[in-house]
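Escalated from tier 1: zinc ion holo job.
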Amino acid sequence: MTQPITRENLFRTVEQVVRDAKVTDVHTHLYAPIFGDILLWGFDELVTYHYLIAETMRWVDISYDEYWKMTKVEQADLIWKTLFLDNSPYSEACRGVLTTLQRLGLDASSRDVGPYREFFAGKQLEDYVDQVFDVANLECVVMTNDPFDPKERSVWLEKIKKAGEKVDPRFRAALRLDMLLINWDQSWHQLKEWGFDVTPDLNDRTVEEVQRFLREWIELMNPVYMAVSLPYDFELPEKSARAELIEKCIVPVSRETNVPFALMVGVKRQLNPGLRDAGDGVGKMNIASIDYLCSKYPHNKFLVTLLARENQHELAVLARKFRNLMPFGCWWFLNNPSLIEEITKMRLELLGTSVILQHSDARVLDQLIYKWEHSRRIITQVLVEKYQDLMATGWVLTEAEIRRDVDKLMGGNLWSFLEREFN
Ligand code: FIX
Ligand code: ZN
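Tier 2 regenerated the structure:
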């Protein structure tokens, strides 16, 4: 489509360009097939996504323990009946299941889970990964890789390091450091067991050894970034092991290796422990902590996503002040059409194309299909409005420029951010 952009063909052009854009999904909880059964996929995993557990438990009177004692199929049947048959499934997580079924060519109107299960039972994982990446039109996804997770750790050390097996290049690593940073009183013991000469007080030797731990995992994983999910009351500067580990270990190694530090801030972990992964809540964080990091370490690169809606405007304003700050995604409780639209409009108005608009946070492979289908629709609508505003001034648009902008917004800004030198 090379004709000039007019008000008449604008929507069609933007819609096609957004659909054509091969997405870099900056944050997921997916794993390459080499990691085995910690990669979740298929109907019953889709339906027992923790978002849907939380929504189901609002309706049923069974205890949490009774729910957790059920088999995965029993849990899925309970959720399907409660949220899809006894109520209309218009919550974003419910709608997502139906979008995925539809985009895979299944009949969402039948409401019969039998054929859905048969469809997935017939799938061979490696082929299915191809199908999902094709339907969702993805370039690659970034995993969440935890060296303290025994199952995952053994794959990295046995299969990848020792046996030289390769990770599917569509699955890029992220070195996740929650265990190190948030549970230092336990993680230092584990580091010691692994042969790192550390003590609980962060003396110089311990700092050196934690840096060595980071370098070794960066060498093995080749991560796109180092990441941590921090609670809403996270503060920097602060007198804490967490703060010292960030400033004395992560920040210097991040700059030395050009592996950005991704901060995901705002969770109220385990408000309701009975719900397990579904039990987390949200709280407004103090943006001054991000301000402190970006201004004190101007040569470092920070990727940031915040969980509270109330933090989104100040994050966008802060990104205007610091070119080493790259906001990304509409995270978790923000990943809903009404909030994606609000946040995307605000970001384009404050940051232009210098932002990464979305990530999926997918925990189940098949979710990539719906999370990107839904986000693409909203991003298209918002972009059309913004381009219309430009055209109203007499500005002339080309399709090539729209493609350029969209590629940046849909993940390209991550790769160019990695190339930048903030000297
Ligand atoms: O910390 C995180 O990466 C969060 O995204 C998860 O803890 C959360 O459970 C999730 O998957 C939200 O979508
Ligand atoms: Zn996540």
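The chain has a mean pLDDT of 97.
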